[in-house]
Amino acid sequence: MASTLDISAARSHFPALQQEQVYMDNAGETNLHFYGPDDFEIMLIISIGISTTQLLHNLATALKFQPGDELVLSKLNHEANTSPWVHIAERLGLTVKWWAASDPKNPVCDPVELKSLLSDKTRLVACPHASNITGTISPIRNIADVVHVHSRALLCVDGVALAPHRQVDVKALDVDFYAFSWYKVYGPHLAQLYASSRVHDQIQSLGHFFKPTDTLDLKLNLASANYELTQSIPEVVEYFGSDPSTTWAQMAEHEERLQQILLEFLASNSRIDVIGEPSASKELRVPVISFVVQGAGSQRLVEEVERRSAFGFRSGHMYSHRLLADVCGLEDVEDGVVRVSFLHYNTGEWVSRLDDTNKDRGRSTGAGRGIARGTRIVVVVDSLRTRTITIWIHFIKTIHAMKTFSNFVNFVRFCGFCRFSHYIQIAYFATWLPCSGDLGHLNFLEIHQLEA
Ligand SMILES: Cc1ncc(COP(=O)(O)O)c(C=O)c1O
């Protein structure tokens, strides 16, 4: 039966089909964000995949190991650069050594600490170029030098948190593997893995036996790169202009100013602990800034800021679970940290406004003065890590019974004393009790003004 599909009409919707040659790998011709290798070399040493997590799993499966090999994994890693290596170690019976950090407030990938973990059995070291929690930049070249003292040791760097902020010269860094995700570099959901040409013979091909194995992509990519998304990458690269190094340098300078504004504000509040590099120097950090506020949950804080303003940032462990649990010692890793991260398109004016939003919040959570009638508040009585029972006081039933302010105070003290609750949530309290009095004499850690 003849096709009812108008093939010519269908083809007319695809402009690329109207040229003689349909070339679907433009991105392979550009320098794909890595600076150092020439374009021809790039074709050989890059693999494109759907995510950094997937690419590193492919790499871990394809890399050749020997019995007795040791893997050294940084606790600062996003899990994407840890779980592939942990899985392969379990499967092959290899040893995993953890590279931790001594300062829980400013954890770093310290080459000196690394040295003591390395031996001639070391096959791989995996660490981040910048932590997606702390924003701190790791001294990758120094680390590579320490790793390469051992002849079989390879260095695998996760560049996802750094790549949106800096141009990456894989040759100058002397890394063996380097991965990042295009969706963090203003592009589509694709990721890219580099493997130094000197290690290609150490990677087995995952492809069918009859397929060529000349390039990294042929070895690691189980299908073809997603053509449609890959086509968009040259457009992203074009965004950096004819002199990308200058553009990147300008971005870094601008971001340094942004991070300085926020870091100064955070440092001025004694209840806020920044986790990561305290200096705003662009040599030391990228604008990924995480912090915890003593006595306040990270998720609650983010929700509250979102409720009051147009700012959107995140809380949680952002898949760097081991860093927050094992290095920083956070008790509630799921609640995690508050993380604010900027890109070069953020403006100083907006970052200052963010500070103002937080300052407003600071005022309303201070001594409890001046809360308007009809306000709904949450009182955090103490920092006891007891089971949280939220007691709702419905104004008709309970507040009515507590006619005076001192009754209320005694009730709150009673709850705190009996450890019944960590949070006592009081609805419409001020409707019944004028609370313009000073609550500072109570052992309140904070009072959240929820709604006026
Ligand atoms: C530092 C870091 N590494 C790896 C990843 C995972 O990237 P992908 O989603 O491409 O697997 C992320 C994602 O946020 C990240 O921040």
Quickly describe the structure.
The protein is an alpha/beta fold.
What does this structure look like?
The protein is α/β, with parallel strands linked by helices. The protein has three domains: about 15-240, Type I PLP-dependent aspartate aminotransferase-like (Major domain) (Aspartate Aminotransferase, domain 2, 3-Layer(aba) Sandwich); about 245-365, Aspartate Aminotransferase, domain 1 (Alpha-Beta Complex); about 375-450, no CATH class. Helices cover about 35% and strands about 15% of the residues. It has a seven-stranded mixed beta sheet, sandwiched between helices. The protein has a four-stranded antiparallel beta sheet with strand order 10-11-13-12, with helices on one face. Helix 3 runs parallel beside helix 4 (about 85-90). It is globular and about 60 Å long. The protein starts with 6 loop residues before the first helix and ends with a strand. Mean pLDDT is about 80; it is low at about 20-30, about 360-405 and about 415-450. The chain binds pyridoxal-5'-phosphate (PLP). The site of pyridoxal-5'-phosphate has 12 residues, from helix 3. This is Aminotransferase class V domain-containing protein.
